[in-house]
Design brief:
Blueprint lengths: L1 H17 L7 E4 L12 E4 L8 H8 L3 H6 L5 H9 L13 H17 L38
Antiparallel strand pairs: 1-2
């Protein structure tokens, strides 16, 4: 199981680093059981993680099922859904804001670490844009969540 997780993480890292964030091709309806009730927009193919088929994106996000079921953070599911199913947009991919990532990480990172799940580098919060009044990113408020406050 650990080898599968390591392989998945490696593929995920490679995929996100190679994604050009350029204009995307096809727009598809979100069908993932994890995301369809919280995402009303159509998403872009290929995805940020280079999934060219909706089925492969649905399968890949399932790796995070145990952590979503543990409810380690209310931010985790929205964050993952916006990474795996970025909104279809003529300007290119719209990423989740860093604050959404930080919210997911704050509650789940320790649990993931204890269980031997390595969070892919591609999902490192510094890869996502900071939330500002003019930022073009998906904010926690989109899911009725408050942005994470910086700890002093």
């Amino acid at each position: 199981m650990f080898c599968l997780k390591l392989l998945f993480c490696s593929i995920l890292i490679f995929s996100l680093q190679k994604y050009s964030f350029a204009k995307t091709g096809k727009c598809r309806k979100v069908t993932s059981g994890l995301c369809k009730d919280i995402i009303s927009y159509k998403f872009s193919l290929p995805t940020l993680l280079k999934h060219t088929k909706r089925r492969s994106a649905n399968k890949a996000i399932r790796m995070f099922d145990p952590f979503i079921k543990m409810n380690c953070s209310p931010y985790l599911r929205p964050f993952l859904c916006t990474v795996f199913f970025a909104p279809c947009n003529r300007k290119g991919a719209k990423l989740p804001c860093r604050s959404l990532c930080e919210g997911a990480k704050s509650g789940c990172a320790i649990i993931m670490e204890r269980l031997g799940f390595v969070v892919p580098e591609a999902l490192s919060c510094d890869k996502f844009p900071k939330q500002t009044s003019t930022s073009h990113c998906i904010q926690p408020e989109s899911f009725d969540l408050l942005p994470m406050k910086k700890q002093q």
